[in-house]
Amino acid sequence: MDSGFYSAFAGLAARMDALDVVANNLANISTTGFKSQHEFYRSFSAWLQPSLTTPINEVVNEYGVLGGASLDLSPSTLAPTGNPTDLALQSAGFFMVQTKNGYRYTRAGNFSFNTQRQLVTQQGDLVMADLGPNRQGPMQIPSGQVSVSADGTLSVDGTLVGKLKIVNFPPNTPLTMEGNSYFVAPDNAAQSVPDANVQQGKLETSNSDPVRGTIELIEVQRSAGLMEKALSIFHNEFNRVAAQQLSQV
Prior knowledge:
Number of strands: 19
Number of domains: 2
Number of helices: 4
Radius of gyration: 25 Å
Strand content: 25-35%
Distance between the termini: 21 Å
Shape: elongated
Largest sheet: 8 strands, antiparallel
């Protein structure tokens, strides 16, 4: 019965975490460059390994907990905007930006100019230009008509002014979300993308599927309700057994 109580509790906690993941996906259906997350589960005994050593412990503790949320980096559709500073990647990779917390990476190319004519994100962070191997700096753009080629090269009135710093990461590089459009990567993990495909006057839409998200939300809510009911049953059973044994003391 102890194992059943802990199993129900772990299951409920896992479903509550999953609700946060699904709700965040649904809340960012219209967020430019947003990449959805999907929850995954693993057994409690797997989480404890190699500390679980006896068959009894493994049997008692074989119940599910939330293992985490994995990023879905699959590309989404590109929506035309006609704005010359709106940029979208029709290839793998990320735009590199400088924030107060260090370099961050984004697929959200809804850029604009600050008062110094530097290219910045919606958060006001500087978009990086490629200054050579392992070098980057703010993308400074003079006044004039801005044109962006597919490889990320920027020109103004036909004069070359710089190239966007577009990077990608080796397979299995751990990326974590920061906010709704930034990603954090380990130091020195970024690698230049030689075959980037930048589309000017377009933005990448969110890859969060509203239909799938709604179905997941309903399923997780129902599952959480069942876990809550099971937890209540075990709790009441504990109280009944405790009351019976107390009278025998």
